């Protein structure tokens, strides 16, 4: 039987860290890759703190330019979780202390997208994916509003909380927490107590994250276990002398896990597959790793090294195992505060 005609080997919907990581891996492996995103370009997002463990992966994905999106580095975090805050270092090795990053998320996303383009990825901004194209139970592409149908041998959903493909396939996520809303914003000025390290402080009804993200720029995030409506110019007490930059924003960070994160001809990565709130501290790392792993599984399936269904099963097993470990750890932290309904 002749192979069906395709427009690309891989169609990726969503150009955040997970989608870009998948695109970079696929293109580096010689696959014709289309990366479509409904937005015109990278957008501002919460969660700019990166664990030291992300550095080796990012430098493989983006060999040059990563340093230009780093606003500050730190050797640990000040943690006040049911006790007075104290500094907790990340660790060290013979080369010295491990250091985390505060990055400009919009700049990081732009850097990953630039790298994908440099590898020959066909990047299509302002291109909204619509219904998937199906051949039996296999996904074989997608209709798009701006470019019409795009046929592909594999489709990767990296549309974040929108979960474009999961919704279209009728995959309902497992909700693993009460409804959670993160509020976040920025302030300008000087706060010397926050310059050495970020802080996360829990107060029994939620937690507050504060960090320096630039020379005179600071970020805060607030999560209440029961959502609270705060002023758009609200600032944490330690930022009281700073000047708010813009108005506060909010994002739904309810924990969700897709029971099916891969199937015939498709993968879901990043928040489209699994999501925790930012206290997990692994959001960007999990997104990059899921994109990387799905990209590797796609390449192995398309070159015949793995049966496509085996590749999908292996990816899903890997994703679920790691997510359950993160859930158990974070649910335990919240149980220390008396919060219930997590896990």
Describe the structure.
This protein has helices spanning about 15-30, 55-60, 105-120, 165-170, 285-300, 310-335, and strands at about 10-15, 35, 50, 70-75, 75-80, 85-90, 90-95, 95, 100-105, 120-125, 130-135, 140-145, 150-155, 175, 180-190, 200, 205-210, 215-225, 245-250, 255, 260-265, 265-270, 275. It is of the alpha+beta class and about 350 residues long. The strands form five sheets. Strands 1, 2, 10, 11, 12, 13, 21 and 22 form an eight-stranded mixed β-sheet that branches. It has a seven-stranded mixed β-sheet with strand order 6-5-16-17-18-15-19, with no helix packed on it. The protein is globular.
Question: How would you concisely characterize the structure shown here?
Answer:
The protein is an alpha+beta fold and 343 residues long.
Structure keywords:
single chain; 343 residues; alpha+beta; eight-stranded mixed β-sheet; seven-stranded mixed β-sheet; 26% helix; globular
Helix amount = 25-40%
Biggest sheet architecture: 8 strands, mixed
Radius of gyration, Cα only, in angstroms? 20 Å
Overall 3D shape: globular
